[in-house]
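Let's practice the habit of predicting before peeking. Look at the sequence and jot down your guess about where helices and strands might fall. Then scroll down.
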Amino acid sequence: MQIVNVVAMIETKSDMRDEVLSMFKANVPAVLAEQGCIEYGAVVDAEGVGSFQAKIGENSFAVIEKWESMEALMAHAVSDHMKAYGAKTKDMLANRTIHILTEA
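Done guessing? Here is the structure:
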């Protein structure tokens, strides 16, 4: 079994990050209950790191995911709760980039 790693970069429209994050967090329990989900959570810039860090910005967050298989990830992508979350947030997003990664 090869773990599938996902890093999704989400940029919201100005001052909408907290609202989108609230909707994201409400959806997390449904995602964690999905078959094959190992990890799923949002992260934002750490404070106090200094110039060492390349910030993603105040209107952005990343989603870190791990899935048991590509099949589990693809089922997640078309799940009813993800379709509903996408519909609720689509007009609040400026950009979304999804990186699907495997071990090097």
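How did you do? The beta strands are 4-12, 37-43, 60-67, 93-101.
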